[in-house]
Design brief:
389 residues; mainly beta; 5-stranded antiparallel sheet; 4-stranded antiparallel sheet
């Protein structure tokens, strides 16, 4: 007899059971938005997806396919601004305007200090880089960090502040580095350095510093293999040279890396490329004494057979336009370049991706003319903004 004559269909009384390893593997492949919703479905799943092992597994699956995080600020009006997430920039292309935490209560539009493992560090202070928010756009978590301990006083005012945000794999910790420069009595500024630890949740001042160099303004530290790196101008015995100041986040020590001589005649943008320290050298907009290069060069610091590291020139592009400015690196390979020129968008796209390996160039349909931009790679993750217990 069938169900039309009144017999009910059989229902399985036992539930299908899967091994825990299989469930973990399946869940770790899901997007962060889905996993966040699943936390309310099951207490076991909520616990599982919060464990360090699961968070790390999910992050490993997300890392090969990063999005592009763009901070855009209209330089003329000061009002047209936002942080945009561009997923699959070279394929289907989807652009999403993100909801920035605490935006309505902030004194100014925040700056991005860095983007690492799904955590975005924002500078939300009106001056002196003294107020920060740690933000996970994927989970929508955010945390306002404690105020730094190094402050400006009337007798000892702060001159400049330099920042960097990265992951310390040695201590399994995310760190925000704040280098505070005070005007000294001579040509060399007096420096104090403090580090915020995500794991410990506090700032601490360190004794380590560096000499014979002044950091270049306008660039945050770039993460390369456990270090933060800034472009700098040499002083005294390093006068008339440009260098990189590198901070080892694990040992919390600085070192100075000399740059190729060509950097004397152009702008320098520090980058990471395929896990190696790299620099883009490009024309100055205004050059003193007419000493200016008219080309783009891309260099990487590579290991050689002699056991030493040497700078290798990967790319030289002659007659490089002054209106093209390197902004950063996407997926640790392609250089993001902004066009600073006129509004002829057909002939001069405002945002480009340039691959130094095959020298291929791709356009991005993003209107960035008349905008101040920051660009970072971004991956979704479950990494919490709160320190681990």
């Amino acid at each position: 007899m069938n169900s039309c004559l009144g017999r009910r269909p059989r229902i399985m009384s036992s539930t299908l059971s899967l091994p825990q390893n299989t469930i973990t593997d399946i869940l770790s492949r899901l997007p962060v938005k889905s996993l966040t919703r699943f936390k309310s479905v099951s207490k076991n799943w909520a616990h599982l997806t919060s464990t360090p092992a699961f968070v790390a597994a999910n992050l490993r699956r997300s890392s090969p396919d990063p999005s592009l995080l763009i901070r855009r600020y209209h330089t003329q009006s000061g009002w047209d601004y936002g942080i945009w997430l561009i997923t699959k920039p070279t394929q289907n292309y989807r652009c999403q305007l993100l909801d920035i935490p605490l935006l309505e209560s902030l004194p100014r539009f925040p700056k991005i200090v860095g983007s690492v493992d799904g955590l975005v560090c924002l500078d939300v202070s009106p001056c002196y880089a003294s107020d920060f928010v740690l933000w996970n756009p994927g989970t929508r978590q955010f945390k306002r960090l404690p105020f730094p301990s190094i402050t400006s006083t009337r007798s000892n005012p702060i001159w400049l502040v330099f920042l960097g945000f990265g992951f310390d794999s040695f201590n399994n910790d995310y760190k925000l580095v704040r280098i505070v420069s005070f005007r000294g009595n001579d040509a060399s500024p007096f420096l104090r350095v403090e580090v915020y630890s995500w794991r410990e949740g506090v700032w601490k001042e360190i004794e380590e510093s560096f000499n014979f160099a002044v950091l270049c303004g306008g660039q945050n530290g770039v993460v390369v293999d456990g270090s933060l790196n800034w472009a700098a101008i040499g002083l005294q015995r390093l006068a008339d040279r440009k260098v990189v100041i590198s901070f080892d986040m694990g040992r919390e020590v600085f070192k100075t890396i000399a740059l190729p001589s060509v950097t004397r005649y152009g702008n320098v943008k520090v980058m990471s490329h395929m896990g190696l320290l790299a620099i883009a050298v490009y024309p100055l907009v205004f050059a003193a004494n007419g000493n200016n290069m008219n080309r783009f060069e891309f260099w990487v610091l590579s290991d050689y057979e002699d056991g030493m590291k040497h700078w290798t020139n990967m790319v030289v592009i002659e007659n490089f336009s002054k209106s093209l400015v390197p902004m950063g690196i996407w997926r640790d390979r392609e250089v993001v370049i902004k066009h600073m020129g006129d509004r002829d968008r057909e002939n001069h796209p405002s945002l480009l991706l340039f691959d130094p390996i095959d020298e291929g160039t791709r356009r991005l349909p993003v209107d960035c003319v008349d905008f101040c931009l920051q660009g970072y790679s971004y991956v979704e993750s479950l990494v919490s903004v709160n320190e681990r217990s």
